[in-house]
Amino acid sequence: MPRIVPLRLATLAALVVVVVMSSTVYADETGATALTERDKWFGVAATIGVAVAAFGGALGQGRAASAALQGIARNPTASPKLFAPMIIGLALIESLVIYSLVAFFAMLYKIH
Known about the structure:
Blueprint: H1 4-25, H2 37-74, H3 79-111
Helix pairs in contact: 2-3
């Protein structure tokens, strides 16, 4: 147990150093990449959009899996008939979240 405390302190110290130094390491000294107010709001909107998509996708996947598992629990012989459509449905739900992530990166690279 006593070895865990120094390890946590070392990890915390390393994290503080990384956070403090990252602003100076990646600072743009020329000022050539100044973002406009519109670009900043595009970034905020894209970030919120990805968060909402991830939340909605997780909620949808949870409900789809729950419904499939309840169906299997009520009728175990229907398991092969429910498993494949459930996996396909989960893949389609996840693809919508991935599309929103692709749109986020497209907006991010268009801004910069």
